[in-house]
Amino acid sequence: MKQITLTVNGTQHRITVDESTLLLDALREQVGCFSVREGCGVGACGACTVLVDGMSVSSCLALALRYEGTEVTTVEGLDENDPVVNAFVDCDAAQCGYCIPGFVLMSCELLAENPRPTAEQITDHLEGNICRCGTYPEIRKAVATAAERNPS
Asked: If DSSP codes are grouped into helix, strand and coil, which group holds residue 51?
């Protein structure tokens, strides 16, 4: 067992992990970030997506030890007035909601890299996320809406 420090949503956390502890489990069990969810366990669905230093990571595949000293963002860390979150709400881009945190974080990553993505770029960037309820049109609309509302 080893103690590491993760900064999660702006707060430092000292947690104890072993070499096989997944970032997903550390975030849920030791930090209390329950928006990070295991969907498939093999990095194919996006439900476990977090941002590490601004880049998307499938936390169900990531060993927690590797992320010592990094800045991890989950949807709990987004501002209550986050434009992506507001666009998802305004566009009814959630049904059961299980996958939505991953979609929101992937959308935040996309808009940070490309504030004015095309419809094709939105679809391509979200390709690794799965919505079992099939709200893809609303999700794509939410990302486009967030981009339109972006003043930059």
From this structure: strand
Q: Is 76 a residue whose pLDDT tops 90?
A: yes
- For the stretch 99-111, pLDDT in tens is 999 999 999 999 9
Query: What backbone torsions phi and psi does residue 10 show, to the nearest 5 degrees?
Result: 90, -5
Cβ-count burial 5-35 (b if 16+ within 10 Å, e if not): ebbbbeeebebebeeebbbbbbbbebbebeb
Report if pTM > 0.85. yes
Q: How far apart are CA 150 and CA 147, in angstroms?
A: 5
Residue 126 has pLDDT above 90, yes or no: yes
Alpha carbons 79 and 60: distance in angstroms, whole number: 25
The domain limits of the chain are 2-41+50-76, 83-149
Contact between 35 and 12 (Cβ < 8 Å): no
| Sequence-ordered list of residues with C-beta below 8 angstroms from that of 143, at least 6 positions apart, any chain | 84, 87, 107, 110, 111, 117, 122, 126
Q: How far apart are the first and last CA of the chain?
A: 46
- Domain 83-149 architecture: Orthogonal Bundle (1.10)
Q: Which CATH architecture has domain 2-41+50-76?
A: Roll (3.10)
